[in-house]
Amino acid sequence: MFSQLYQLLTLYTLPIYMLPSFGNLQNFKSLYCDFRLLHDGLESSSFQPNGLLVPITLQDIAIWAALGFDTLEDRQAISVMKMRPNVKCTVSLIHSAPYVKTVLPQKFKLEILRNLRVPVLYYESYTIRVWSGIDSVYTILLTTLRRREFVQIFPPTEHLKYRDIKSFAILLVQTTSEICVQIDGVLPNIDLMRCLNLQKRDDLFAIFLRHETPPKYWGFANYKTQQAGMPAIPETYDYSINTLVLQTFTRFNTSVTFSLTDIPPEINENYQVATIENGLAYETLSSTKLITTSFDGFQFLTCYSESFLTFKFYITPFSPPLWATLLICIMLIVSIVYFYLIYSNLWRTFFSPWLFVLATMFDASTKIPGILETTTFIRLVLGIWSLISVFLTNCYNGLVISELNAPFESTKFEMFSDVSCLERDVQNLNVSTVVDHLAMEGDSNSSLSKNQHLTDIVSYYLKIRRFYGHRSIQDKPLRNNKVDKHCFAIYSPAITHEYSTALRYEFVQFLISEYDEIDYKLRTNAKLFPRFLVVLDLIHPKRAHRPRALRDTWLKTYNSTTLQQSVEREIVKCERSLFVTRSDAILEEYDFLTKSYPEIRFQLGKEIMKPIPFGLNFNFGGKSKIPRYFKFLIEAGIWGKLEVIRLQGVHKNRKPVVTMGTDVVPIMGMRTGIATIFVLGSVVVLAGIVCFFAELQFERFKKLLVGLKAIFMDTNVTQFGE
């Protein structure tokens, strides 16, 4: 974490006509510290005595201070990308020597505030500066003024709030070195500070840490307290969370509130209120402590299944290479045995090699004539094949039985690629070819526009991109006439925006943002991973992205309940459809659907698209042990149990929209799939009948040949006699 790597000490001098030789500053001569010197244009000899640190950065802030507070803020900030890799602290000496007697006191006080409230660390993300917090910032104000003179010019409390500056101290170096450290939760008033004499060997950082105390006030955001007068219901999520949080903070004798707006103004202004937020977990430069609880992304559920067993079911247990090897092995064995019989002049025996091999594959066998049983060759070849056949047959039967007891292979939709709608010619395209097509789409180069599917995807994306655009004004609905019922429809919760009257859907909005990222990478020649084909597949115009009842509706004329019911009605039909939403919401929906429709077997996809870490963010916790205690609760599974309780109570009052047994198609069982077995049996019987008639015709053909041969022989004999 950044907060564990960097500590910043700001030494602000006010005013210095002669800074005594102060040996304590030499403690900052460390390989792990950077030293900055910011001054207001004075000569170096007036503020830099012998033996002081050699500054790495020397900066004149006088000209920037005259331009305004925002400009000064930017100029004094430190970029972590420009710091040395092994740096763990930064010492900043801000020197200012205004003429106290000639400057108005009010203006002078504001100048002090301007310098003390400057953020000191930042990094850039997408050209945006991300500032650090103030927990790791230590500020010391050095002055040669006497205590009485200093109190007169130091800003009163109405100009400086506690949230502006936290770890603050005043170092009086007029006669004896006296340091006054700010008490946590108290405004930086020198009369209320803890003052002590500073020894030559004292470490300023150690003094700050010694006087650091845990925060007194905490706020647990994103949760509300239970209303007064309501009975305590252990099954409710809010009650469980509140109870856990209250017990945790009671253990540390600390106050906590579940609504930040309920914090009194005097506490909010004079104290740093620590907060716990349940949301995105991401690294920053601040001292926020993170505990990741889950990864939230887009996940799908479906209840679609095949209505019959296909031939794919019977060839699925073995992979194609194994089937090919088995077929080659059978052909070799049959051919070798046939050649052996012909070579040994045993081909007239009543033995069929191919029928024997086929019988052993079905746990049966045929009788081998005694004259063949005694031959070593037949024993070796057919004996080894029998052992192999028994092993393969048992493996095959076990796998088939397992598949019959488990969900069918055709209904195991675990990844988004399992519900692909892209044509095979698109799936087999080289990634670079697809990239070239997308990059050149719309140009006059016809050689890159041969694939109509990619062209349709790009055209549909541009259409929905305009429809989903910010502040777009739509005067007609977004229609899609290329919907194919053989492609999985994608339904997701509807989203609303105050600035738009159009009806939009959550997952479609996500796909647009993903396609925008693809387009950006194409323009910047960035590397694209093959997974971007999944985005093209999900945004295919052959997919329906809106329920049937709302395909002609594009304005927000329905409430959220009606929209939810329309999606639920489509899902429980168990047709080719997916419900896609965030991982936490999909679990809530799955729990409701499985309880409301027990005869339908729903399945969750295992893939989470674009997962984002979520967890607890502890802000301004300081040295408190509360984050550590919450980590124990999460690792022990208590937090996970509360999540299960939450799932059980989210849709407690929600009613199913479809009555079972009327218009819901139940998932397939063997009662409908058994027909495929009879079909296979009928095919075998039909093949046998065809072979039977072929044999009859063959026998007739043989008799015809014998008759013709006899006639031919009689004719020859007659001619010979004559």
Proportion of residues in β-strands? 15-25%
- Using DSSP, what is the number of strands? 21
Q: Number of domains in the coordinates?
A: 4
Distance between the termini: 118 Å
Q: Name the average pLDDT.
A: 71
Summed up, the helix count is 23
- Helix residue percentage: 40-55%
Please mark out the parts with pLDDT under 50 across 5 or more consecutive residues, or reply none.
Answer: 1-6, 13-24, 49-53, 98-104, 224-238, 444-449, 662-672
Oligomer: single chain
SS-based structural class? alpha/beta
Q: Describe the biggest sheet?
A: 8 strands, mixed
Strand order of the largest sheet: 3-2-5-1-8-9-10-11
Shape: elongated
What is the radius of gyration computed over CA atoms, rounded to a whole number of angstroms? Answer: 41 Å
Structural notes for this entry:
The chain has 722 residues and is α/β, with parallel strands linked by helices. It has 4 domains: 2-210, no CATH class; 311-407; 416-571, no CATH class; 675-722. The chain has an 8-stranded mixed β-sheet. Strands 12, 13, 14, 15, 16, 19, 20 and 21 form an 8-stranded mixed β-sheet that branches. A 3-stranded mixed β-sheet has the order 4-6-7, with no helix packed on it. α7 packs antiparallel against α22 and α17 crosses α18 (532-538). Keywords: Membrane, Transmembrane, Transmembrane helix. The chain crosses the membrane at residues 322-341, 347-365, 673-694.
